[in-house]
Predict the structure.
Amino acid sequence: MKFRSCSSERQFALIKTKHEPTHVGCSKIFILLFALFFAGNLLAADVPADFNAANKLYAEGKFGPAAGAYEKILQSGVASPALWFNYGNAEFKLGQPGRAIAAYRRAELLAPRDAEVRANLAFVRNQVAGPTLRQSRWEDWLGALSLDEWTMLAAGAFWLAFVLLALRQMQPAWRPRLRGLTSGIILLTILSCAGLGTAATTHYSKPTAVVIEAEATARSGPFAEAQDAFKAQNGAELAVLGRRNDWLQVADGSGRIGWLPVKQVEILPGA
Amino acid sequence: MPVAAVFCLLLWWLGATPAHAASFTASLDNDTLTLGQSATLSLTFEGGSPKNTPVLPDIPGLQISYVGPSSQFSFINGQTSSTVTHHFTVTPQRTGDFVIPALTAEVDGVRLTSQPLQLRVVQPSVASTSQINSGSQIAFMKLMVPEDKVYVGEALTARLEIYLRDDVRNFGNFQLTGAPADGFTVGKLREEPAQRAQIGNRVYTVVPVSMALTATRTGTLSVGPLTANLVLVVASPNRSSDPFFQQFGIRDPFGNPGGAQQQISLATEMVNVPSLPLPTQNVPPGFNGAIGQYTMAVTAGPTNVAVGDPITVRIQISGRGDLGSLTLPNQPAWHDFTIYPATSKVATANPLGLQGTKTFEEIVAPQNSDVHELPSFAFSYFDPDTGNYRTLTEPPVALAVRSAGATPVPTLAATQTANPQSPARPEDILPIKDDLGALAHAGPPLITRPAFLALQTVPVLAWLAAFVWRKRTDRLANNPRLRRQRQVAQRVRDGLSDLRRLATENHSDEFFAALFRLLQEQLGERLDLPASSITEAVVEERLVPLDLPEPALNGLRDLFQLCNQARYAPIRGSAELNSVVGRFEKVIGELQELKA
């Protein structure tokens, strides 16, 4: 709002008379926004170069530095399926199937129908011993679209439905012709909203934990002295049931329940 | 005084010297064992204790495990002696004569050496047929292999039967102490429900145990002799039939109700089975070592895909055999597909794991839109019962493959060098992507962003606006008076502008003509009469009964008179015309407040 109040004339005036206190606030905001805009562009410009450099390290067999380079890009706040995919590859080559699975799953959240991501995820999962969490067929079907795709589908149908309803109000003569289309779009809206609701529920209420240490011992209670409940291998995917301080209550694919330290796992939203 | 006495006694005890110098001896509680039995080896240190627990050397054929120490302290005639004994369990793995060599240990800086020990391990006696039939054997074992020949790689089920005579009340602690198998790998064991059998003139309880075996080589294979230990509880007539109670014909309530316990060792004969190589004639091209009897079901979906889209092929192989070792054969006919690593799971139908279903899930992706079907899937196995190879074939699955447009086709590192006619199954992850793709700033999902949610109110508001507009339009269309009211109000608004303009321009005739027309329009609308029928007389006839305020009536009368006078009177000035406009506005306002 402040920026909007700064007219071009006032900006021009403040260049000539910088001592005017009334114009200083506007100029700072303007310069800050200008700097942020170009900083963002510069950051975006660096990412492909960093990505290529990381790929080069990977190609040279320097998987540790490559993983570090991919991770650094991801920590800058940008992401793409390819970035997570390559990071997963590097972690797998480093003997970290848990981190690889977590990376592939994050890539899958962005690009759920990417055949290469699915293939590598299946391959690494196949390497992990012990019972693992399996998604239901229903969850598999919902996972064909990402949460944002479900959102866009539902929003698109929602907008179209209301535009058609508004059109019917404005042009009553078109109502007979629009009846079938409107009913279809309303049905699509209901179905897509139901899908979105289910996908969002799964995303937020069914988080999973991927074990990222060589062997994690789940305990019967949330403290280190508790008895062993079961052992989970690096890469095992567990359902998160609850959390208490730095401990997660988890269940493995065979239904065994135990507590794991948070630092031994990577927590992912439900797919 | 008592405290001083105890103190002196303690000093005297501490000052007492050992009766003898330290010594080290080794002993076995039993120097002749039947294979399956164990002996206890005791290493005794008298007059001192070694600094560390003695470590025994590895002796081939003997399994030695440490049990723990025990100590003894004695005080006789002022002389103290202490003994520390370390106990080991010695379990032979085979028959023969063994020597436990002399052992050396350091006690209080002195190296002590024990004497070597001899241990003989003999084969447990296998009951002969005559002994079994006579009923003299309280328990015995039999090993049976149902096949008279096996093929290398074939899995089979052997049967071990434990026979317990009818006077055995109970048994326990069954432990298979030796299961030698030459050319077989021994798999899971499973105890079956007990049966009863008449042998000679005694009745035996038979406890069968099934055992999974897999032949690993050709030639003569052998399994056994199996040896086992178990503890029997045998009925003891002497202890359970006290004469005192016998004379009353009742059971001795103080006798041992369980009978006498007895530990015995059992052994079976060795069973030899010839193992044959698989036939080299008529070997199907896709045969990859599967042996057994199987059936197969294949499903694939989705069948309407774009180039590069994944199709999940589910292959279920059910039957009898070593399911765990089954692998999918390469399918040369699938050269138009990219094949990703298969996952598998085994659902066994019997506890030995030799019967059940193995389900493979393989993801394939068509490489071009010319593909119209997933070619037939073939699985070959060797049937050991008939001695022939068999091939199961599932028919092709029709596919509708459309062009993928910009969708990239996944490529496999392994296929870049492999023969394109026979795509190799990848044994590693797919290579990294060179294209970074569309970058997105990591952020919360759209559905949680307030701006996005707020945007969704736009279509609702648009529809609400259209709805309200429609309602107003319909109300207007169905109410001619209301419509006329609005039309007249609009005409009056427009007419006022015209009046002001005409007054300013001092066009008196046009001014009063317009004024009269506006009065007609407004009064006609209020009285629901045609505008053309409105004259000055209407004021008296229709407005007076409506209780219009007198000033308004007078104003109307004046305006009508002005209009009439204007036709004959001279032209007035702009100022006077503007004052007429003001009076007209006032009258019109009062008229518009009048309820029609």
About this structure: The two ends of chain B are 131 Å apart (CA to CA). Residues 6-19, 405-426 of chain B have pLDDT under 50 and may be disordered. Chain B is about 25% helix and 35% strand. The longest strand of chain B covers residues 62-76.
